[in-house]
Amino acid sequence: MSNTHFYPNGTPGQPWGDAERAQWRAAQQRQRSYHDDVVAALEGLEERFEVVQYGQLDYAPDHYPLFAVVSHEWNPALPTALITGGVHGYETSGVHGALQFLDQHAEAYAGRINLIVAPCVSPWGYERIQRWNPDAIDPNRSFRGEGLIEEAAALMRWMAARGDTLLVHMDLHETTDSDLQEFDPARCARDGIALVPDIIPDGFYVIGNSEDPQPAFQQALIAAVEKVTHIAPADANGELIGMPLQSPGVVWGESRSIGACAGFTDALYATTTEVYPDSPRTSPRECNAAQVTAVCAGLDYALADR
């Protein structure tokens, strides 16, 4: 274990208190616009889909309406899929991949499956290119109970009130160099624990819910995405991010028990997608395309398997 890269906030070995969280929060600067990048894009979709505000985040002086896009021609006799992006706001292709799917592909599924797409679950994090919410809490560990923070709670409340039975839930993520350079050191400093450096996989992979991994579904995503971008190889231990490789590009991890977004629903087919945008072998456009391809492959597999 090593504290070589200890985060410059707080005292090594001591968890953060309110003062340290406030110091961290004050250092987070807005770097892009949720309204310009996401809300404006959703406004452009209003004639083709139903755009619903399901909640709002109030982080004075900032206020963020939370939106989901729902199929216009909703048919309760059809299966339903939920696509979520931007649970970690800094993971850009999760947000823009979801928006690209809506603009370019979602209408092709009309009459076959009902769609719900929440493209940016954590807009404060999106604007600041940050993993956490303003209280230094990880949204993707907060989808448990009734939701530990409002980013999770708002979506969970709305989905519970709708009462949809989901066939598919795909949560779109990235694994980035900043995980090693910024977010892992920050997490260990926040929790007062030693930093153990991890290995960032170079390429696309998926994390199936270990509670019910549906391996053939996960493999179908890899088969589709490998035509678009490269798939992450296992490390020297036969693992990706500390999880045993089950098949090329596929690992299984706890989801519901840790409060991950992909585990809060009872969808039969659930996954967390991961791309590596910092690879010299890819580009932002390719990362977005990988997310879109994965979503389409997941929907196609689920519909073919009915």
Automatic annotation (TrEMBL):
GO MF: hydrolase activity, acting on ester bonds; metallocarboxypeptidase activity; zinc ion binding
Domain spans labelled Peptidase M14: 30-306
InterPro entries assigned: AstE_AspA_cat, Peptidase_M14
Cofactor needs: Zn(2+)
Keyword terms: Hydrolase, Metal-binding, Zinc
Family per record: Belongs to the peptidase M14 family.
The protein, known as: Peptidase M14 domain-containing protein
